[in-house]
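To illustrate the input format used throughout this study, we show a single complete record. The first block contains the structure-token representation of the backbone; no residue identities are included at this stage. The design step must infer an amino acid for every position from geometry alone.
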């Protein structure tokens, strides 16, 4: 059996990458590791982890309910981390810039769309996220949305579907 690779795109097996953070067996040691594990939690539909690692957002019952419902309606396709500032094991602040690709998850509609030759549109979140380390645990503090990201024409497209950008979201 081939070990399942981690959804965060690290190239590592899930079991030794984000899974220990999602199960609570370990704390993410860096801001980037926390960011990646939060992406993986969206991918795996684990809202409790997302809420537990978000200091300011989702603080009201309504916001929590929204996240729980929203997370079931999205399919996450790809993560690219561009840049990390601080966020190391000895830091208290960290910044991670990334693009994450997703599309609506509509199991009722998907097969019919496929038959009609249509595909769910892929969107992206291009964000600079801020993190803080509190009592040894990294938490998400806030995010700044950036202008839509475009990969280079001949580079693999940011959406992660395997085509060159110029033949995809170019
Ligand atoms: Zn991972
Ligand atoms: Zn694309």
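Output of the design step:
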């Amino acid at each position: 059996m081939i070990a399942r690779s981690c959804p965060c795109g690290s190239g590592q097996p899930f079991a030794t990458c984000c899974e220990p953070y999602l199960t609570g067996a370990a704390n993410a040691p860096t801001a980037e590791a926390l960011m990646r594990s939060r992406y993986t939690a969206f991918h795996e539909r684990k809202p409790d982890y997302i809420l537990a690692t978000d200091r300011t957002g989702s603080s009201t019952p309504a916001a929590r309910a929204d996240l729980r419902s929203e997370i079931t309606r999205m399919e996450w396709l790809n993560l690219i981390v561009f840049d990390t500032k601080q966020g190391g094991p000895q830091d208290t602040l960290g910044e991670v810039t990334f693009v994450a690709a997703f599309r609506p998850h509509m199991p009722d509609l998907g097969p019919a769309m496929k038959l009609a030759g249509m595909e769910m549109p892929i969107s992206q979140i291009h964000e600079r996220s801020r993190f803080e380390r509190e009592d040894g645990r990294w938490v998400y503090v806030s995010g700044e949305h950036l202008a839509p990201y475009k990969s280079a024409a001949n580079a693999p497209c940011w959406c992660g579907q395997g085509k060159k950008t110029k033949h995809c979201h170019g």
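Structural context for interpreting the output: Residues 31-44 form the longest helix (14 residues). The chain has one domain: 14-167.
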